[in-house]
Amino acid sequence: MEKKFPYDLLENPETLAGFQGWSKEVYQDLLAVQQNVLTEQAFREKYIETRAIFILDMTSFTESAIRYGALAAFLRILDVQKVCAPVLQRHGALGIRTFADDITATFMDPTSALNAALEIHERVQHFNQSPLASPYPAYACIGLGYGEVFHIGMDRAMGDQMNQASKLGEDTAEAGETLLTESFYHAVAGRTDCHFEPRQHPGIPFLYYAASSKTVQTQKIQSF
Questions:
Q1: pTM of the model
Q2: pLDDT for 32 beyond 70
Q3: Residue-by-residue DSSP string for the chain
Q4: Per-residue pLDDT for 5 more than 90?
């Protein structure tokens, strides 16, 4: 006897797409996989891409909003976006997207993503030491991943490497740090202009690396 779920299920691709998670086509294909009309392999072949993932979070957004007000926090975000956007564009970033105090982007290759991350830290630091800087400046925390992702969703990159890079950029990296997934590290490990430090954390179920430039000397950053 067929078992049925006793409550309503929304299975209209167009309505689901209206929530802006995935496109109508992606919802159609996912529903087709559930219904055994489309194989998982066919779905993967249609949507899988290899990309470098860039996730940037900014320091102390919540604290700055509480201490100085929401508008002051927005201006901190604006400053970092003004500094970061030209760097990302120059290094060939794809699908740059901002949300609150986050910036996400993808790159065709990990070298470009790492170059952009290291340059962003340098430029943010210089900006914060300039006359244009806010008295309570923001700094960048960056996570980088590399590998196969599904070319779907708002960032056009969903999967394990996006999840790991987000964990590193949003929850783990401190001000001025660039943290790499193990997959990203192996793709750039031959670079002689960078120093790589393996790290482990009890709250993170995977090995990751901290990357820094050997040629750029950065000061110890205090977010406040």
A1: 0.91
A2: yes
A3: -----SS-----HHHHHTTTSS-HHHHHHHHHHHTTSS-HHHHHHHHEEEEEEEEEEETTHHHHHHHH-HHHHHHHHHHHHHHHHHHHHHTT-EEEEEETTEEEEEESSHHHHHHHHHHHHHHHHHHHTSTTS-SS---EEEEEEEEEEES-TTTT-BSHHHHHHHIIIIII--TT-EEEEHHHHHHHTT-SSEEEEEEEETTEEEEEEEEEESS---PPP---
A4: no
Query: Across the chain, which distance is largest between two alpha carbons, in Å?
Result: 73
- Residue-wise pLDDT for 60-89, tens only, equals 888 888 888 989 889 989 999 999 999 999
- Listed residue (171, 175, 174, 169) closest to 203, CA to CA: 171
Q: What is the C-alpha end-to-end distance of the chain, expressed in Å? A: 63
pLDDT, one tens digit per residue, over 193-212 is: 999 999 999 889 999 999 99
Residues in a beta bridge with 104: 55, 97
For residues 215 and 193, the answer to whether their CB atoms sit within 8 Å is yes
**How far is residue 138 CA from its own chain's centroid?**
17
**Domain 49-213 class, CATH top level:** alpha beta
Quote the tokens at residue 37. 């009309």
At residue 112, what is the residue type?
S
At 203, the amino acid letter reads: G
Give residue 223's pLDDT: 44
**Which residue type occupies 214?**
K
What does the domain layout of the chain look like in residue ranges? 13-38, 49-213
pLDDT average, residue stretch 111-117: 98
Written as six digits, the tokens of 183 are 């997959």
